[in-house]
Every structure is written in structure tokens, then in C-alpha cells.
Amino acid sequence: LTAFATTQTHLLMLWRFYNPLTEETQVDVRACALAGLDAPPLQCDRLALLRAPLPVDNFEALDVQPIPGGHRLSLLSDDNYSRSQRTLLATFDWLPPPQSSLTTPRASAP
């Protein structure tokens, strides 16, 4: 788990994976519906899985802002002063259906 953010109804999590043998990077964004204390364990679903050929790097920040009908998720990576890394910003509009846990986000180009 690299970063997390919350809405009134969901916990959003940013997971990242790097395989040094293949130099493959993957970024996984998941949302878990929040419920009362007497509810069953968190029900989580994948919102996005980023990997090649998409521009993916060392994403380590997650922000969520309300938009009409949903939320805008922003993921940020930095180059860590390394020539092998890049600073990237990726944004997604997540529009959960009414009274449902999750839906697939719409990607927007950076």
C-alpha cells in the first residue's frame, strides 16, 4: 500500500508493484465501500490497473476531489532525481452508480 484517500462512502487505495528482474511496474487503484461497524469486512474492487504500454512510473500520491456525479482521482509520481524515472500526473473520473459500491473509471489523458 503506497497511498490512500477517502470519500464519504469509500476508502481508495493506491498499490504499486515493481519487478526488478523484468523492470515491470504496475499500479493498482482499488476502492472499498465503507459500512458500519457491524458490517462484514470491506468489499473492495479494482478501479484501475496501470501497466505498459500506459505511461507508468513510481506513483506514490493519491488525491480525490468531488466532481458532479462522482470523484476525480489524481495519481502522482516523481522522478526522485533519477534519469530512469519520470514525474507523471494521471487523472481519472470515477462515477459510482447511485446506491452501488463501484463502477469502472473513465481515463483522461494527462
Task: Outline the structure in words.
By secondary structure, the chain is mostly beta strands. It is built from no helices and 8 strands. It has strands at residues 3-6, 10-19, 24-33, 43-50, 59-67, 70-77, 88-94, 106-108. The strands form 2 sheets. It has a 4-stranded antiparallel β-sheet, with no helix packed on it. A hairpin with a 3-residue loop joins strand 1 (3-6) and strand 2 (10-19).
- How far the N terminus sits from the C terminus, by CA atoms, comes to 24 Å
Strand content: over 45%
Q: Helix fraction?
A: under 10%
- In one word, what is the shape? globular
Largest sheet: 4 strands, antiparallel
How many runs of DSSP E, i.e. beta strands?
A: 8
Strand order of the largest sheet: 1-2-3-4
State Rg: 15 Å
Total helical segments: 0
In summary, what is this structure?
The chain is mainly β. It is built from no helices and 8 strands.
Task: Describe the SSE topology.
Elements: E1 3-6, E2 10-19, E3 24-33, E4 43-50, E5 59-67, E6 70-77, E7 88-94, E8 106-108
Antiparallel strand pairs: 1-2, 2-3, 3-4, 5-6, 6-7, 7-8
Label this structure with key terms:
single chain; mainly beta; 4-stranded antiparallel sheet; 8 strands; 54% strand
